[in-house]
Every structure is written in C-alpha cells, then in structure tokens.
UniProtKB/TrEMBL annotation:
Lineage, highest ranks first: Bacteria, Pseudomonadati, Pseudomonadota, Gammaproteobacteria, Cellvibrionales
Pfam families assigned: VWA (PF00092)
PROSITE patterns for this protein: VWFA
Organism for this UniProt entry: Pseudohalioglobus lutimaris
Keyword Transmembrane helix: yes
Protein name: VWA domain-containing protein
C-alpha cells in the first residue's frame, strides 16, 4: 500500500499554468544597419530571417518538462510504502522488589536441601532469580533499604541485568537499620514515572520500621491512591524480640491497605511458596503494540526524472552530431 506523507504538495501541480500568463522571454543582440544589405546577402549566400522570433519546444521537450515537474511534485509529496501490520508484545506490569539489607539479614537460619545453612539474603537472592525466570513479561525494578532506601535498578525488561545487580547487593550496604516506610515511598516515586497501570510492589524484610520519614501505614495509603498493590514477605522467626523483632501488625496492615497480601517465610520453601502464590494472584500480563513499517519512495520519481533527462540529451547529442557529420560530408 502506498500513501503520501504530504498530499497537500500536489496543489503545486497547476503552478506551471501560471507561467503562460507571463510574457515570452526575449533576448536582444547587437546589430549593424548597412545600406548595402541586399548586396551582403547575395555575397554571403544566406537567406535573411526575421529579427525577432520565439523559440518553441518540440513535443519531446514538452513531454519531458511536464513529466519532470510531475516527478518533482510527487517527490515533494513523499510517497511511502506502508507494510502489513506488525504486532509486538511488551511487558504489561511493573514489578518492584524491595529487599531489606539490614544487619539481621546475615542470620544463617535458612537450610538448603543438602542441610547447609545460608544467610537470609542468599536465600532471598535464589528465590528472586527463580521469580525473574518465571515472569519474563514483567518489567522488574529493585530497591534496597537499610538505614535509607536506594534504587538499585529502575524498571527494565532486561532480567539478566536485574539479576546481576541483585547479586551485587551485600548485607549492610544500605545501613544497619530498616526504613520500611521510606522503601515504599521510593517505590511510589518510580511507579509515578511509569506508564503502566499494573503496579506491584514486593517487600522482603526481617525486622520492624526503625525511623522512616514516612510511617509504613501512611506510605501504604499513598500507594493505594496510586493503585500500587503491596505484597510483604516477613522473613525469619516471628518470635524474635528487640530491634530485630518482626512487626507483623504493621506488615499485615500495609498489605491490607494497598490490596495486597502478607506472607511469612520461616524457610526457603515457604518463601518460594509465597512467590508462587503471588504469581497466581498477579498472572503474567502482556500488552500488544501494533505498527506498520514505512519505507520512503520519494527517490523514485526523482530518479525517473534524472534518467529521462539524461536519456533525452544523450539522444539529441547523437542526432546533432550525426547531422553535422552529414552536413560536413555534403
């Protein structure tokens, strides 16, 4: 299918008709008036001609001029070849993961299948890598928080880069505390800069809030106003006391306000089950984008005009040369 990008350029087609309203071009030459003109004609053996004449084009020239103008106007209209529709699927959900990097995450209370104990952060990394593999259609982001919340990875479709930056996180790199509410606030800021209307925040923490600028419950209310669903996963032993104790009431309340859900993960299996449940609650979502490729064809009429122009003048040059050769032979 061919269409014109600038169809209004065709209005220039009748412009040459206005040229007929202009007077013909006249070229003046110097001349000498002599009283013996008749004698001069007789001696030179040349036939006298009119002193002024209008040079007119032959049919080939008229055709070539009109066709050249048509080609130039058509090129200015920019014809384009429109290809068949192509549909592409893009991620339809923004999924932000916030990971607690406070000092309590180094507790080695998660056991592997072979009986080896690993710290909580290593267990989180293993499960999150499985999550990234299971959700290829989601745009993933990563926030780490401790004494402050930091954006480790903005939303991206490149899960390989996301997992690499997750693997580079270390316990304590964000400080020893747990600013649960500030992590929610930072996530909201990232969601507001995204065009997706499907927004999910997963928070993994093993402690309670220890001094966020915005309390977690207030941050959850703001998240709900931006249609951000928060799923919280409480890691570790809920019977822990002191600063590292899990504030299950606040964690549960944050999820309820935002329309999410709370999970407790005492081991790696429960953590994996929590992600599988979240996957069922938030199924994969795709958005289809349809577009038609365009290829400009404006060079074709220009090339046609140039070829015909060169062809015409080549033929005329050969005819002129042949005529002169015949005259010289005579």
């Amino acid at each position: 299918m061919i269409e014109l990008a600038y169809p209004w350029a065709l209005l220039l087609l009748p412009l040459p008709l206005l040229m007929r309203l202009l007077p013909a071009y006249k070229e003046s030459r110097d001349s000498v008036r002599v009283p013996f003109f008749a004698k001069l004609v007789e001696l030179s053996k040349q036939r006298p001609e009119q002193g002024a004449r209008v040079i007119r084009r032959d049919r080939a020239q008229k055709f070539l001029v009109n066709l050249t103008w048509l080609c130039l106007v058509l090129a200015a209209a920019k014809p384009q070849w429109i290809g068949p529709p192509i549909e592409q699927q893009k991620s339809g959900r923004d999924l932000m993961v916030a990971v607690d990097l406070s000092g309590s995450m180094e507790t080695q209370d998660f056991a592997l299948a072979d009986g080896t104990n690993i710290d909580r952060l290593q267990a989180v990394k293993q499960v999150l890598e499985e999550l990234a593999d299971r959700r290829p259609s989601d745009r993933l982001g990563l926030i780490v928080f401790g004494a402050a919340a930091y954006l480790q990875t903005p939303f991206t479709d490149d899960h390989q880069v996301w997992m690499q930056l997750l693997d580079e996180t270390e316990i304590g790199m964000a400080g020893p505390s747990t600013v649960f509410g500030d992590a929610i606030g930072l996530a909201i800021r990232q969601f507001t800069q995204s065009d997706s209307s499907n927004r999910v925040l997963i928070i993994l923490t093993d402690g309670n809030d220890t001094g966020s600028t915005v309390p977690p419950i207030d941050a959850a209310k703001v998240a709900a106003s931006y249609a951000v669903r928060i799923y919280t996963i409480a890691i570790g032993d809920p019977t822990t006391v002191g600063e590292d104790a899990l504030d299950m009431d606040t964690i549960t309340r944050v999820s309820e306000i935002s329309g999410g859900r709370t999970f407790e993960a005492l081991d790696q299996k429960q953590m994996r089950d929590a992600y599988l449940t979240i996957g069922e609650l938030e199924p994969e979502l795709y958005e289809s984008i349809s577009f038609r490729p365009k290829q400009s064809l404006h060079w074709l009429p220009v090339a046609l005009a140039c070829i015909l122009y060169l062809l015409y003048h080549t033929i005329m040059a050969l005819i002129t040369r042949k005529t002169r050769a015949a005259d010289n032979a005579a």
